Every structure is written in structure tokens, then in C-alpha cells.
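Input sequence (272 aa), recorded before submission:
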Amino acid sequence: MEKIRRNERMSTMLKILSDAPGKLFTLNTFCALFGAAKSTVSEDIDALRQTAEAFHLGSIETTTGAAGGVTYWPRVDREAARAYIQGLCRELSGTERVLPGDFLYYSDILSTPETVNQMGRILATEYADCGADFVLTMETKGIPVAFATANALGVPLVIARHSSKVYEGSAVNINYVSGSGNIETMSLSRRAVKENQRALIVDDFLKGGGTARGMVELMREFHVAVVGMAFVMATVEPVKKRITGEKSLMTLEVLSGETAEAVVRPASWLSA
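Predicted structure, C-alpha cell format:
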């Protein structure tokens, strides 16, 4: 086998690590792949860590011992996160996207892979230490950003549905009060989660908090702890939601007038 140069090893390692956030790769994995000694691979990883830190590409962590290795975590520093969300706010603000009922059209934003991946990395950075075993969302618009967050955290995505599906086996069904005041149903397969796990709730939109409250109650039925709640967008009104402790990336205020205008701002925690 032709000797692999250092830049080739490092490029390949970074690609492998970034494709599997949160996964532990042993040094032996890379030693076998490149035909290199552990000392050589360790030096490469140290250089990668320094590069990732210098260019804000994420965090590369190593663990020692027989079961040790290297893990990559996507991370976005607070200043870069705010700048990115500020750009989205400018794009979403104005009169053109306002819908009846003071809602905002941004399905195009939630359908853009680059955008939802960056939002997922920002949320994963904020909840990196919450110890979530999985990310929970409600079908359907919240799925892209929830998936991106789950991927960045290296955990599975669990999707609650409006009705149970025969191909998912037996399910737990609960009734909850939606933001519009209607009684709706939420369903989750009994095999989807396990008792005593920890859930991070991620969804696209928060107004009154009815759906989010329903997900919290659903997790209670499974004896699962909710360790955080995150949303892409939250309305300024009503001020009092049916949940507490949530975080959103953006806030929405619709100013009434001859033509309704949306004012979208980065959430205050992004400035902290």
C-alpha cells in the first residue's frame, strides 16, 4: 500500500468524524485505516483539534484509556450564531410573509438543508450538556430542524404523530389542548423510547405552547424527563405560555396596520 501523506490522513479523519457527530472512534480505527502508528495518529488529531478551534469548525475531544478514542461535536460560538440568526431575521421581517392569524410563512427556510443544519448546530451547542438521549418533535414542519439538532447531538430523532400508525405497533395516545384551543390527539409508539430516558423537545413554532405542553405530558406517560425545549420561532404574544424554560432562535411580533408587518428578532439569549 502506498504511504498516505499527513494532509491526506487529516482530511480523511475530519471527514469521517464530522459525518458521525458524537460517535467515538478508537485510535486503532484510524491506525488500521492508514497503516500508521498510534503516536502518528495522535499527533494528527492534536493538529485537527487546534485547526477546528481556530476556525470554529466544532470541537474534537479525546478520551484516554482502553475504551478511549476521539469524538467530534459540531459547535457554533455565540457571536457566529447571533450573526447567522440576525441574517434570517432580516430575510423574514417585513410585510410579504405575514399570513392570516398573525402567522409567518417560512416553510422555504425550513426546507433549505444548509439553513436547518446550521440551526440544528446552534441548538445542539446550546443543549450540548443537557444529557438528552433523543430529540422529540411533533409532525411535520418541525422535523427538519429537529433532525438536524439530533444529528449534531449524535442522538436519535423521535416523532410524535397526530394518530397512531399500524406499522409502529401499540402506541400511547393522549389528548391535549392546541394553541387554537382545540382538543387534539398525540400518539407515540411504545417502542420509540424507554423509561428513565431524557428528551430534548425541538419544534418549529411556539405560540401558546399547547402542542409543546402536550409533548411534555406525553413524555410523562413514558416516565421520560424533558431536559429542554427549543423552537425555531416563538411569538411575543401571548407573553405567558403553557410551558416554561423554553428557548427559541427567533421571536415574532406582528404589527397591525393598513398592512400587517412582521418584526422578527434574534432571541435574547443569543446576546448573553
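Checked by second reader. Helices lie at 6-18, 27-34, 38-54, 78-92, 113-126, 143-153, 210-221.
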